[in-house]
Amino acid sequence: MVVIRLTRGGAKKRPFYHIVAAHKQSRRDGQFIERLGHYNPIAAGNEMPLKVAVDRVDFWKQRGAALSPTVARLVKQYAAAQPAAAQPAAA
């Protein structure tokens, strides 16, 4: 089974997470199938704290991938922050 989850990167006391599609049995920071975005919980200045390829997440969900609870929350948060791009222009 495929699961969409976070893998940790960054340095000690400075976490950085990649959102990846991986096999359920692979280790947290082990092999993955595809990188779908990133999450930087301590982003400062004009750094982008969250970036998600929503189209690729939907692709994997259609094929039976499960989202971890944290990734589900982050995808929902990212979608709420991008309403202007998702809404079609009104005539």
Order of helices and strands: EEEEHEHH
**Total strand segments:** 5
The percent range for helix content is 25-40%
Strand line-up across the major sheet: 4-3-2-1-5
What is the percentage of strand-forming residues?
Answer: 25-35%
Q: What structural class do helix, strand and pairing data support? A: alpha+beta
What's the main sheet like? Answer: 5 strands, mixed
Average predicted local confidence, pLDDT: 90
Number of helices: 3
Could you say which overall geometry the principal axes of the C-alpha atoms support? flat
Terminal CA distance reads 44 Å
Number of domains: 1
- Write the CATH fold name: S16 Ribosomal Protein, Chain: A
Rg for CA atoms = 14 Å
Can you tell me the residue ranges where pLDDT is under 50 for at least 5 consecutive residues? none
The CATH superfamily label reads Ribosomal protein S16
CATH 2nd-level architecture: 2-Layer Sandwich
What is the CATH class name?
Alpha Beta
What does it look like?
- The protein has 91 residues and is α+β, with helices and mostly antiparallel strands.
- The protein has a five-stranded mixed beta sheet with strand order 4-3-2-1-5.
- The chain has one domain (2-86): Ribosomal protein S16 (S16 Ribosomal Protein, Chain: A, 2-Layer Sandwich), CATH 3.30.1320.10.
- 29% of the residues lie in helices and 34% in strands.
- The N and C termini lie far apart (44 Å).
Features:
91 residues, S16 Ribosomal Protein, Chain: A, five-stranded mixed sheet, 3 helices, 5 strands
